[in-house]
From TrEMBL:
Keyword Nucleus attributed: no
Superkingdom assignment: Archaea
Origin species: Natrarchaeobius chitinivorans
Keywords: Membrane, Transmembrane, Transmembrane helix
Protein name: Glycosyltransferase RgtA/B/C/D-like domain-containing protein
Signal peptide coordinates: none
Transmembrane segments: 12-32, 38-59, 71-96, 102-122, 131-150, 207-231, 251-274, 281-299, 305-329, 341-361, 414-438, 450-473, 479-497, 504-524
Amino acid sequence: MVYRSLSRLRPLRLDTVAAIAGLAIAVALFPLRLFASQIYLETVPLVLATACGLYILSLYQGSEATTHPRLPASVTMALPSVVLVGLAAMICLTVLQGERTPAFFGLSSVVATLVVGQIAFADDRHFNRGLLLVQVVLFAYAFRFAALYATPGFVGIDVWTHVELVSAIREESSLGAIAHDKHYASPFYHLLVVASSLLFELSLRSALYLTVGLVMPMSILLVYAATNLLVSDRWSVLAAAAYALASHVSMWGIHLIPTSLGLVFFLGMLYALVRVMRIEYTLRDFSLLILLSVAVILTHQVSTFIMLVLLLAAFVAQIVFVVGPFGLTRLDPSVFRAKKPVNLVGLVVFNFGMTIFVWSLTPYRQQSFLATVLSFFTQTLEESAGFLNIASGSPDDGGADGVEAAAPTLLDQVALYVDVAGFLFLLGATFAGCLYVVHRRRAEQSVFTLLLAAAFMLVFVLGMPMFGIHTFIPTRWFAFLYAPMAILGAIGLRTISQNLSPSVVVVCLLTFVLVYPGAMILAAESNPDNPVFSDQRERLAYDESELAAAESIGELTGSPRGAEIRPDQRLYTDHPYQTLFSRTGAYPSTTSATVPDDGVAEHDYVVYRERQSTDAVYFVDENGEGRIERISQDRLCRPDHGTVYTNGDVTMCTPSPATA
């Protein structure tokens, strides 16, 4: 019925068929929420249906559409000054309050909304690309470095391990200091920090912030440059802003680990790929591709795998335009410049070959990295894979090393929807952009590479976890996925703004402007140093007393090696505090405490900190399942315990000699 009705209005094209198919898929996915409770099962079908519906509406309303209202010139000229004042206020607020508080995130949301609002609604005459890009980059620096400045140590979990590796390399002046670790074959991040520390005579913390920390916000410009090869300045700047605000992108600008540096090189790869597909490239352009791909391989394993997925998408796009249904004579150069598909076979073969070679030499758990990962994947397929088996997780899927929380409360649900709202808005715009570029007259290898890359990554991020497959650490993929999504999303918003009636355009753009920045800023990944929803999200940063306690307890116990600690001497505390002891070497054999419901822990050696009674931290219950719970000190330090260390905020308890 829908097919016949639309075909009478306009001959059906590939993009029209794809939009109708998208609606059908959304309807087919809708009943899955009855079989499993999962946020993406409940929301993605609605987002897909909305995007397809708006795109179909744009097809048959485009001829009547006119330019939507713009901001007055006086407002457009005044807003940059307002934004700069807001950025200064963000910095001052952090300095005065000593941390990024809810007031900081509220102010950041307002400032970010003003920036995105300028991009979307400034009139063409007063649209200043350079000034807007400066605002986007300055916001990224202010938002991220406020967290780095206010946090005494580091933000995150893995960063402590990497700093220990960097310290070992600097002390021994040799890469052999980490020969036992998987980063031995991908040491670029660690060598960069060591070299910067020695060259500029800085602490490791300062060297990390002034190298990886500085380059992360600036890499946003690579998204702008890639998008600008496809669409005009307004939408290129919007893509850069959407990417800069993305929660996982902010997280890797705060939690500075090899993933962060791998992301920078990945963005360079993405830009270089789009560039060689859009211009008459030279040997220099192709050499840049090879150089960036080698940099990714020598930086981070997960980033390498994601890069290979991107290259696979580019190769498939090449095949589609060589032997597929898209004839080059049908391309419309007024939309995307027609160009013969670039042959990427050599690049793909080189990268796959080098990756396999490096991974085969990378030590990981008494095997090579390649053998271990294949073993993990095989084990997952045999033991836990299954349709809608979404309960299982990997250690990197959440802050609690894969543990499950208790039954969600209303506030838990609110926090969960806030966490994914920004992603869903960008996903909807991405769907619209994908529908636009599959039109025969607009199709080209570059945009199809982006489409296929986003589709393949979504399979790893959303598809495989539905089957219980978490081997590929899906949470690490989001920041990479946001790059093609931001570009396609900008194309989608451009399509909507040009082809729908002004009233619909204003509603769509205004909703995006008002919701997307705040949702991304309030999402848990944007504020790991001091969560907005502190009752539902653990804090992945520590104050001075907690850092001092870990160091002092290490000195008190002699920082024994794991092999020297008997099972009954294991140290127990909350998660994530236990990771600080184990990853810094203060007390390697430290794990999450088991605290029964309404009961007390039965461990001999425990560490209590005041935050366990006030904020969200993880403990394990009597069934071995982790959950967020606030406890009093006497539930961890029993009456028969003696106190061997305390600084007022942190207390270490051991069996009392009087009761031994």
